[in-house]
């Protein structure tokens, strides 16, 4: 049996959850005040997901970097690998907010998109 304590971030209540994974594989969540806490606790225990925000280099842009983010949460275990890819990524200006910078990063089905405009100099 594995037990973890965590704070739920699914709503403003910030419930303190106790999540237990039984030897049978069953996951029990207590301490939640809404159903979203159960979903969050189970997800955190099995495969934690995160939205990733960062920046990539811009060539010929009015600013040297453009902020980017994932379109959906990605497995937390992949964040370091994704950051290595973003560190090596360079894009040509102009960039428009919402433009896909990297499609289907690491075969996750998640895109990396720009979060702001960067004009060309």
TrEMBL record:
Coiled-coil parts of chain: none
Record protein name field: CxxC motif-containing protein
Source species of the chain: Fervidobacterium gondwanense DSM 13020
